[in-house]
Amino acid sequence: MKRYGIRITLAEESTMRAPHLLGPDWEYFRWFDTEAARERALADMARELRNYRRGDRLDQVLERVERED
């Protein structure tokens, strides 16, 4: 079982939290075999995306999580 994860939620001010879109309780998890793999993915997910317009930003909140043994 993959132990190291990233929990992705939407920022409070995100318009995607509207009930007719993703909703206020939307969350998604990505899991990794190693802590190092998680840290690489987290750094990649936190950087500014090239396909967005200048000034646009992601309204996501990234949080490190771990499963218990």
Account of the 3D structure:
- The chain is α+β, with helices and mostly antiparallel strands and 69 residues long.
- It has one domain.
- Helix content is 17%, strand content 29%.
- It is built from one helix and three strands; from the N terminus they run E-E-H-E.
- It has a three-stranded antiparallel sheet, covered by helices on one side.
- The termini are close together.
- The mean pLDDT is 88.
**Structural shape:** flat
Which series of helices and strands comes N to C?
A: EEHE
Say what oligomer this is.
Answer: single chain
How helical, in percent, are the residues? 10-25%
Sheet with the most strands: spatial strand order? 2-1-3
Task: Tell me the number of helical segments per DSSP (H or I, 4 or more residues long).
Answer: 1
Radius of gyration: 14 Å
Q: Count of DSSP E strands?
A: 3
Find the structural class using helix and strand composition: alpha+beta
Low-confidence runs = none
Amino- and carboxy-terminal Cα gap = 9 Å
- Residue-averaged pLDDT: 88
- Structural domain count: 1
Tell me the fraction of residues in β-strands, as a range: 25-35%
Largest sheet: 3 strands, antiparallel
Descriptive keywords:
three-stranded antiparallel beta sheet; single chain; about 15% helix; about 30% strand; alpha+beta; about 70 residues
